[in-house]
Amino acid sequence: MTFNHINGYLLVKSAIIKYGKMLLCLLNNYISSRKESFYELKLLTVEHLVQKFSLKVLAGKDKLQQPITQPRSHRPGLEFVGHFDFFPTERIQILGRKEITYLHKLSLDERQFRIGNIVKYHPPCFIVTAGEEGLTYLKQYCLEEGIPLLCTYEPETTSEFITKLDAYMVKSLAPETAIHGVCINVYGMGILIRGKSGVGKSETAHTLIGRGHRLVADDIVVLKKLSPTTILGTHDEKTKEFLSLRSIGLLNVVRLYGRKAFQDETRIALDIELTKWQKDSLNNDLENETKFTEYMGVKIPHIEIQLQPGRDVAGLIEAAANNWLLKQQGYSAAEEFLKRLESEF
Fold this sequence. Notes:
By secondary structure, the protein is α/β, with parallel strands linked by helices. The protein has two domains: 44-171, Udp-n-acetylmuramoylalanyl-d-glutamate--2,6- Diaminopimelate Ligase, Chain: A, domain 1, CATH 3.40.1390; 175-339, Rossmann fold. 39% of the residues lie in helices and 27% in strands. The protein has helices at 3-34, 46-53, 77-80, 97-105, 108-119, 136-145, 158-173, 201-210, 253-257, 313-328, 333-344; strands at 44-45, 55-59, 67-68, 93-95, 126-128, 149-152, 176-186, 189-195, 214-227, 230-235, 242-245, 249-252, 265-276, 291-295, 298-307. A five-stranded mixed β-barrel has the order 7-8-13-10-9. Strands 2-6-5-4 form a four-stranded mixed beta sheet.
């Protein structure tokens, strides 16, 4: 290797170190700016559905920016026969084999009348799951009214397609917020680990990963409200698979420990807060009264774990998860203990 080669190699190495530190700094600034912040509701459009489900656009290519505001789709069966009470016009309209077969059997005038009654309400779009054969009349109406007409590339079972579509729209349109903490899946249940900066949240998550549990998000946890009783925890895409450890740096848990160390999302079951040890502040009751933390109107069971040298925090979180699962099944260790005492007297 010549002197020029060595000199070039050193310059490249120096640049990597320099810009690597710069990127890490930018990442830390980004994380700090997003902590404890509320997200705006995401805009979902017809074009997003076209890309997500690889749909064919049969009409209305210039109307794909049409917004979607409702997380459920609709099959217009009753509407085709003239019943428009409670017709959800703001929903995506799905035309499966039943609807298309019915339209094909109608006379030309009757078909135009039935379709005209629906398209005049201007739903966000129509999606056909039974193939595009014989849809010329439907294309014409959608072109005239400026309504996107989409079709699956291959005929699909309508019920299965609706299940996939609705699940995607529910997640995409769900109210969401971001909090500072760690989200990890322990024994199949989602757990939020919160606490002040530097208390050891990420280190605890790293220990749990080593015990076979799965990281969902570190530092920025995105919470989505899927229903009045369900909160879904997931990551910010930019920090996906990353775990930041003080004195070590940024780790990619999938590269280090394999795919089993990471999970994309999880339903939140417990909210655990790590706090500094306070003498005489912990009670020693047989069973603590359940406390809750509220996220977007949904109450999540809350547990405080105080830190002290020698305490196995990861083990305590595993115990809390298993105990919560037993309580959901109707079992209480405290109640069983009291019954044993009563049987002796």
